[in-house]
Request: fold
Amino acid sequence: MTFETLLVEQHGTVLLVTLNRPRALNALNGKMFSELSALIAGAAIDAGVRALVVTGAGTKAFVAGADITELASLDAEGARHFAASGQAVFGALERLGKPSIAAINGFALGGGCELAMACTLRLAADTAELGQPEVDLGIIPGFGGSQRLARLIGRGRALALLLGGGRIGAVEAERIGLINRVVPEAELASEAMRLAQQLADKPPLAVRYLLNAVYAGADLPLEQALLLEATLFGLSASTADMKEGTRAFLEKRKPTFTGR
Ligand code: COA
Reply:
């Protein structure tokens, strides 16, 4: 598949996805959402893809938000549709069942911060800046920011960022749990690929059940979430990789997982 707004490279079982509109600091427009949607749908059914890295083209930005040029001309129904389609794409990424890593190589603002939050894990360059500046444009986040941010870092901290509209550096983002780890800028790409490869080498069915348990369970009352966990635990015990993983431990050797 070739895209106009994305660069996609497959490195073994890791898909490296670069949002590629550097002249607009990789701002998200309708075309980018439809291409991301197609890419995620393809990755979902491709057993050769076990993990994704998502990053931005150029040296300045991961993603500087929704494309304000496009946004400025939307009426209420157009804006609702824009938000709903962005939410669907980020939801599909979050629920892909395969881990994704945001390699935040610069500004991650508005939709950029929301995209990073829809990824499974977040690494940021020490030069990166994150924030939800929508309020200063007279709008609110539309791609999940008002929901995922509070779930990730707690309501109080989320409200301070959402209402303040300012930017925070990577070190502060790590301190409040918005990102997993700060990495020196020059090492970000290699570190993200290394982490993605580590995750890609894990038994993919166990990884999928784990992601399902965490994400679907978070929306359920505890009792039902625990039932879901036990059910997925049972399912994981039916896999060849579970037999191999436990046998390899008992035989004191490295397991060879087949993804079945
Ligand atoms: N949508 C569309 N274009 C954008 C954009 C966005 N979200 N963010 C940046 N751009 C464009 C700028 O218009 C500029 O285009 P130009 O060269 O044709 O004038 C180019 O990207 C470079 O941005 P610029 O503002 O000149 O860079 P800067 O280093 O001075 O500032 C930012 C960088 C990220 C602080 C600033 O671009 C910014 O605040 N962007 C908007 C962030 C935002 O509000 N996002 C939420 C949107 S809902």
